[in-house]
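ARCHIVE CARD
CATEGORY: sequence design from structure
SOURCE FIELD: tokenized fold
FIELD CONTENT:
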């Protein structure tokens, strides 16, 4: 009888070929085999997954874990606990920390501060320095395959790329370097024009009108044209409106190297929720109308969205309860991402089975982020040779998310009191349990991942 380090037995395994009853065998932190359920192999450790679905470890490609420099809001230890409690085993952290991740030295210093505190594996998106976009040429693939630019700013995003000539230069630099560009795509000039006319919002409910969809539509149109001109891959983050979704989907269908992300927050809340939640759901881009949310969900079901991210960006609760003009955008979300996404899928397709819905989850939260961002040789699927990142999930459990469940350092959630359908029972990263419901957390030995040896070409949108 063949012996493995770990055998996860009898779960409904969501793999590249669909969902099937299977045993997953693990050796040396890697998936050694996916076998028919009831196989006669043994494991030094065995986990009974009967009655549960087994998913690949999820990838949140859009987090702000606030390390370094903003750890009064969040720190890596708390954020990684939140991640694994939500089935996330790999994160891609954004560059707008203090200092920003503008150089390879910044990335190495960030890794040094994180090491020994992380329950998740991680990569970094490099930051685009508006004053020196050419500095991206100093990054090696091991340090960054992606770079993020902000086209408008807010409280924790002071480095805004406003100069059209520098934006054009950025696309040229990224093309030469083979980098995929990520964008907070709202046009700063549009917002400045509106601010000169109407001033600052007086109430939380005014915020969406003061940061309207027009900013995103203008920015997205510019980015599509730049992607067409340069052939540079561009991934637009946290798309909030139906018009942006239509433009980006049309660009991808036309063969342009353009992909896009929706967030759990924009899929969960609408402007009508502001009366109840106030600044807890203040985001940048703003939460929009029901018709916009409906369009985003439609894109998830139809495969137009490439990734769904949390945009996990906590603030201390006291910071969120200041006067309307001063309340910072951003909220915690990495722990809530998977349950909110699955609950939303169930509510919008009540007759669909978990076997039909969970492949949607694994596409946008595992396979596509792994492929687009350069870790598909280790992450994103349950297949021999990949890291043994596994999530044991009970799709039938209904549970209420309360303050006692929150792992983020800020201690609050905009989803307080939500009734979720589906719950993570256990999260395994590289063959070892890092979260088990009611049993706590494992060892924080997450690592800075090296990129795939054969990365996806930056212009590939398949």
């Amino acid at each position: 009888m063949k012996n493995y380090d770990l055998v996860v037995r009898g779960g409904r395994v969501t793999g590249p070929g669909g969902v099937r009853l299977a045993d997953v065998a693990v050796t040396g932190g890697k998936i050694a085999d996916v076998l028919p359920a009831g196989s006669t192999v043994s494991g030094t450790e065995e986990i009974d997954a009967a009655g549960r679905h087994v998913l690949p470890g999820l990838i949140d490609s859009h987090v702000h874990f606030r390390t370094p420099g903003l750890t009064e809001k969040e720190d890596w230890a708390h954020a990684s606990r939140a991640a694994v409690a939500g089935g996330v085993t790999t994160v891609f952290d954004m560059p707008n920390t203090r200092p920003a991740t503008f150089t390879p030295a910044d990335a190495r210093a960030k890794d040094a501060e994180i090491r020994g505190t992380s329950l998740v594996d991680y990569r970094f998106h490099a930051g685009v320095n508006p004053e020196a976009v050419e500095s991206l040429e100093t990054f090696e693939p091991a340090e960054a395959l992606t770079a993020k630019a902000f086209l408008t700013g807010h409280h924790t995003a002071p480095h805004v790329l406003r100069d059209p000539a520098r934006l054009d230069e950025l696309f040229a630099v990224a093309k030469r370097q083979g980098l995929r560009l990520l964008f907070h795509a709202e046009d700063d000039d549009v917002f400045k024009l509106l601010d000169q006319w109407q001033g600052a919002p007086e109430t939380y409910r005014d915020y969406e009108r003061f940061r309207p969809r027009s900013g995103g539509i203008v920015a997205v149109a510019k980015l599509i044209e730049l992607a067409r001109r340069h052939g540079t891959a561009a991934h637009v983050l946290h798309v909030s409106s139906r018009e942006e979704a239509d433009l980006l989907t049309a660009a991808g269908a036309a063969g342009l190297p353009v992909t896009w992300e929706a967030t759990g927050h924009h899929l969960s809340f609408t402007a009508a929720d502001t009366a109840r939640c106030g600044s807890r759901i203040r985001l940048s881009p703003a939460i929009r109308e029901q018709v916009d949310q409906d369009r985003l969900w439609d894109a998830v079901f139809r495969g137009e969205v490439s990734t769904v991210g949390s945009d996990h960006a906590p603030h201390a609760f006291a910071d969120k309860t200041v006067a309307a003009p001063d309340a910072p955008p951003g909220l915690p979300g990495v722990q809530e991402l998977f349950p909110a996404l699955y609950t939303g899928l169930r509510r919008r397709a009540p007759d669909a089975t978990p076997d039909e819905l969970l492949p949607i989850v694994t596409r946008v939260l595992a396979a596509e982020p792994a492929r687009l961002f350069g870790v598909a040789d280790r992450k994103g699927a349950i297949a021999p040779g990949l890291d043994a990142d596994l999530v044991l999930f009970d799709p039938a459990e209904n549970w209420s998310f309360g303050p006692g469940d929150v792992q983020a350092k800020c201690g609050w959630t905009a989803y307080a009191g939500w009734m979720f359908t589906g719950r993570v029972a256990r999260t395994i990263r590289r063959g070892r349990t890092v979260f088990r419901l009611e049993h706590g957390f494992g060892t924080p030995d997450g690592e800075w991942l090296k990129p795939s040896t054969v990365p996806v070409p930056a212009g590939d949108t398949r």
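CARD ANNOTATION: The first strand starts at residue 3 and ends at 15. The chain has a mean pLDDT of 94.
SHELF: design records, drawer C
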